[in-house]
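User: My collaborator sent over this chain with a note saying "see what the structure looks like." That's all I know about it. Can you take a look?
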Amino acid sequence: MSLKDVETIEITKDQLKIVAGRSKLTIDQTKELLIALLQFVLEQTVLEVEIEMEKIIPVRTGELRDDFLTKLNNSKVRGMVLRIFLWSEFPYAERVNKMSTFQVRHTGTRYENPNRRGYRAKARDKYGALVYLNDPFAEGHFFTKLVEFTKERLMLNLARGKAAIANGSPLTVRQLSAIEGEA
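Assistant: Without extra context I'll predict from the sequence alone. Here is the result:
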C-alpha cells in the first residue's frame, strides 16, 4: 500500500507552434525559453512543497517525511514535460494519512503507541533519554492536503514564470497564454 500522485505540465508541439508563430523567435529559440520556464516552475514548486512537507507530514521517526522528500527531489523536466512526484512506499503511509490531526500531533505523550494493548514502550531520543512526543504542525489527512497545495503552487508558479519570461524576452504574456497547466 502506498500513496502516489504525479503532477504534470506538458507543452505540446501544437502549443509550441502557437507560441512561436505569435512571436519573432524561431521554434528552437521558443523551445529553449519554454524549457527554462518549466525549469523555473519546477525549482520554485519543489522548494515550496519541501517547506510545506516539513510542516505537515507527521514525524515519529522521520522516515515517512524523508521518503516523500527523496521522491520529490526526483522530480524533473524532461523534454517539454515537467513532472512532480509525490509518493511514499512505506506500508504505514496510507494508515497515517487516514488519521485525524489530533491523532498525528501526539502532543505531550511519553509513549510510542499508547493505544495498542500491552505496548507501553517509552519514547527515547538517540542518547536514550526519555522525551515527550510533540509534532505541533502535523496535519491529519496530510497527503490530500499536500496534493492540493502542490497543484495550487504549480499553477501560481507557472503564472509567475510566464510573467518573468515575458519581462526578459520578446514573448508577451498573451503569447504565452497557450501554455496551460491542469489544476
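A starting point for your reply to your collaborator: DSSP finds six helices and three strands in the chain.
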